[in-house]
Write a structure and sequence with these properties.
The chain is of the alpha+beta class and 164 residues long. Helix content is 15%, strand content 36%. A hairpin with a 4-residue loop joins strand 2 and strand 3. The N and C termini lie far apart (83 Å).
Length: 164
């Protein structure tokens, strides 16, 4: 009986050893390695401002710009005079943009009522690499019959693009 027990124990151990070898022969370790990088670039900027349609004798000044601002200084002489400025905006990034807000506010409280501003909005959608323009026209009101006491007026424009 002792001999039979030993044979059974040896048979069980041999079976376990064979199963372990068979398992390792059919087992595979898989590894997954990954690396991620953000390569999208957000870069909406002003690339130019140019005076156009300058009434005779008027001075459009030398418009200036940076990536985030454009400035002009229009000098009008008589009623009906006008100067139009064209501002160029470019999406120099790799992410498409959509216009969220375009607000132009003239200082009507402290500025001359004889100066009238009109504007256009830039493109609603600005794809990566694309550009758009907006215009700001300043006009000396043609219905003005006297030189106004207040001779200046300021306008502030805010253009906001967001990720599409």
């Amino acid at each position: 009986m002792n001999k039979t027990k030993n044979i059974i124990i040896i048979a069980i151990l041999a079976s376990i050893s064979i199963m372990a070898v068979a398992y390792s022969a059919f087992a595979t370790t898989l590894r997954i390695n990954g690396n991620s990088e953000i390569v999208g670039e957000w870069n909406i900027k002003i690339t130019g401002i140019e005076a156009q349609e300058v009434s005779e004798g008027c001075d459009a000044g030398k418009p200036q710009f940076t990536n985030t601002s454009a400035t002009f200084d229009a000098k009008l002489i008589k009623p009906g005079d006008k100067i139009t400025y064209v501002v160029t905006i470019q999406n120099a990034g790799t992410i498409n943009a959509v216009l969220d807000n375009a607000t132009f506010t003239a200082d009507d409280k402290n500025g001359s009522s004889a100066i009238i501003y009109s504007t256009t909005d830039p493109a609603q959608n600005l794809a990566a690499g694309a550009q758009t323009t907006l215009t700001v026209t300043v006009t000396y009101d043609e219905e003005t019959t006297e030189v106004p006491e207040i001779k200046t007026k300021t306008i502030i424009g805010i253009i906001e693009y967001v990720q599409e």
